[in-house]
C-alpha cells in the first residue's frame, strides 16, 4: 500500500558516520504492523505476530552482513564448538552456522517460530539436522549456566532481539550474553535499524554505542564497521560489531 494511503510522513534525514540516512516509509509501515500485535510488557505476544504472519524481519535469508564479517573480517571465528542464536525465528542463521561445522542452538519465545524452524530443519541433509536444535524458551529465564553449557559464538541479529526488547532490559541482555558466552568466545551484533529516533517499539531506537554499557564490563569490542554487503532492506541502516568475552 502506498505510504500516502497509510498516513506515513515523508522521509527524514539523519547523519551517522558522516553519511546521510533517510527514514524508510515502508519500514515505518512494517514497524507499526508489528506493534499492533507485539506488546512490550508481554513477551509471549511475539507468538501472536508469528501466528498472524506479521514477521517483516523474516526475509528468508542469512543476512549478508553476518556472512561478510564471519568470512571476510579475518577474525578467527570457530569452525567447531557451539553457537547460539537467540531470537532465531525460522532458523536461517542457525542452519548456516551448522553447515560451517558448529553445533547451533536457536532459541525463540514463540512456539510458532520454533515450529517453523523445525519444519525448515527437516529439509536439510542429516549433517545439518544433527548440528542444529531449536528451543522454545525465554532467553532471560535460563539460569545457572555451567561451563559445559556455554557457547563459543553467539549472534544477535536483525531486528529481533536487542532492538526488540525494551531498553530497560538491555543491561540484563548483556549479563545474560556474558553468562552464555565462554571466555575467549565471540558475540556478533548486527545493529539494525539505525534510523531516525522513534518513540517506543519494537524495534526500539538503537545506536552502536548503546551496546557499550551492557557489554563493556565482560566483553572487549574488537570490530565495529559498516558492512559493505547488506540485504536491500538493510542498506545504509546497519552496522556490525564483534565482541570477545573476557
Automatic annotation (TrEMBL):
It comes from the Eukaryota. Signal peptide: none annotated. One of its GO terms (molecular function) is S-adenosylmethionine-dependent methyltransferase activity. GO terms for biological process: methylation. Keywords: Methyltransferase, Phosphoprotein, S-adenosyl-L-methionine, Transferase. Residues 226-246 are annotated as: Disordered. This is Thiol methyltransferase 1.
Amino acid at each position: 500500500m502506498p505510504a500516502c494511503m497509510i498516513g506515513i510522513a515523508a522521509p527524514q534525514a539523519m547523519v551517522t558516520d558522516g553519511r546521510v540516512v533517510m527514514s524508510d516509509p515502508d519500514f515505518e509501515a512494517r514497524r507499526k504492523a508489528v506493534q499492533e500485535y507485539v506488546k512490550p510488557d508481554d513477551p509471549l505476544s511475539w507468538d501472536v505476530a508469528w501466528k498472524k504472519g506479521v514477521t517483516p524481519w523474516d526475509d528468508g535469508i542469512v543476512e549478508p552482513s553476518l556472512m561478510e564479517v564471519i568470512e571476510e573480517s579475518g577474525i578467527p571465528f570457530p569452525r567447531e564448538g557451539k553457537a547460539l542464536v537467540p531470537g532465531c525465528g525460522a532458523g536461517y542463521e542457525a542452519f548456516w552456522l551448522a553447515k560451517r561445522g558448529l553445533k547451533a542452538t536457536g532459541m525463540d519465545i514463540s512456539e510458532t517460530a520454533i515450529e517453523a524452524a523445525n519444519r525448515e530443519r527437516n529439509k536439510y541433509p542429516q549433517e545439518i539436522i544433527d548440528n542444529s536444535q531449536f528451543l522454545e524458551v525465554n532467553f532471560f529465564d535460563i539460569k545457572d549456566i555451567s561451563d559445559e553449557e556455554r557457547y563459543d559464538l553467539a549472534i544477535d541479529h536483525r531486528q529481533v532481539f536487542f532492538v526488540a526488547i525494551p531498553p530497560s532490559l538491555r543491561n540484563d541482555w548483556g549479563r545474560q550474553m556474558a553468562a552464555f558466552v565462554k571466555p575467549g568466545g565471540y558475540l556478533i551484533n548486527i545493529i539494525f535499524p539505525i534510523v531516525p529516533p522513534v518513540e517506543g517499539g519494537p524495534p526500539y531506537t538503537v545506536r552502536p554505542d548503546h551496546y557499550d554499557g551492557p557489554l563493556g564490563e565482560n566483553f572487549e569490542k574488537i570490530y565495529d564497521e559498516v558492512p559493505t554487503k547488506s540485504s536491500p532492506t538493510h542498506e545504509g541502516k546497519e552496522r556490525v560489531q564483534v565482541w570477545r568475552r573476557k
